[in-house]
Amino acid sequence: MLINYKKANIDQIDGRRVLADVDFEVDDGAFVYIIGKVGSGKSSLLKTIYNELDIDEADGAVVLDTDMMTLKRKQVPALRRQMGIVFQDFQLLSDRTVYKNLSFVLKATGWKDKTNRRKRIEEVLSLVGMSDKADKMPHELSGGEQQRIAIARAILNSPRLIVADEPTGNLDPETATGIMELFKGISEKGTAVVMSTHNMPLLDQFPGIVYRCHEGHLEEITGDYNKMQISAEESV
Q1: Which of 41, 141, 184, 230 could covalently link to 18 via disulfide, CB atoms 3.0 to 4.6 Å apart?
Q2: How far is Cα 83 from Cα 122, in angstroms, rounded to an integer?
Q3: Do the domain assignments include residue 46?
């Protein structure tokens, strides 16, 4: 199991509790959605996975075999190197090419051989359909292309887990569908994907495990549930 939270309490930095008694599990290769209204705790939950936000207290909180309750600050980089993180606003380095964006990450994570770095960059760009964009600057790419590069960056080190916060939020429907197909393919190859979204039609188009942040709690949505009712509430 990649993530195992038991009765975890999650507070904002200002001390305001956003989620209480969270039970949350993610297995290898799982495709998991986090839905809920704006401010319901979706992003806060994701931030605890890569330790941008601490878990206040829990009966158990494990991410990638790491006890999050005893994690020391100096151990955080090693934890994050085991996962890929994809943001809605891409967060590419604007002063360098796509190739140099990806090379920067590999250098920072211990890839010293230049030939090996080039080979891995070519591999991931091919996987995301961006082989011809290596020499482009981020501002020369469309939003969908930038998100594909962000995903390429996230999978550089063959992570067991990808965490994505509203990865299709700034994209048109057609582009969003392409990004979701890419995530689904990554999941089918064994990498777990956990993403927050307010794009409810995706749940039908790309089925997965659905958790809902609602009234301070996290609940798994199972069985025959009314997606239309959830859509009307959660997409605002």
Answers
A1: 41
A2: 20
A3: yes
Domain that holds residue 217: 3-82+159-234
Q: Give the pLDDT score at 88.
A: 82
Helix (H) or strand (E) holding 204: helix 201-205
With tokens 């994701």, the residue in question is 46
Q: Provide the CATH number for the domain around residue 36.
A: 3.40.50.300
Q: Mean pLDDT in each 10-residue stretch from start to end of the chain (236 residues)?
A: 98 92 97 95 96 95 97 94 90 96 94 96 95 97 94 95 93 92 95 95 94 97 57 52
21: nearest Cα among 50, 59, 48, 47? 59
C-alpha–C-alpha distance, residues 132 and 219, integer Å: 43
Which residues have C-beta within 8 Å of that of residue 112, sequence separation ≥ 6? none
pTM: 0.91
Q: Evaluate whether 27 touches 140 at the Cβ level (below 8 Å).
A: no
- Which among 98, 91, 223 has a CA at the least distance from the CA of 166? 91
Distance CA 224, CA 200 (A): 16
Residue given tokens 């009765």 in the structure block: 7
Of the candidates 98, 36, 21, the residue with the CA atom closest to the CA atom of residue 230: 36
Note every long-range contact of 125-134, with CB atoms under 8 Å and residues 24 or more positions apart, other chains counting.
125/98, 125/152, 127/152, 127/155, 128/152, 128/182, 129/182, 130/98, 133/98, 134/97, 134/98, 134/99
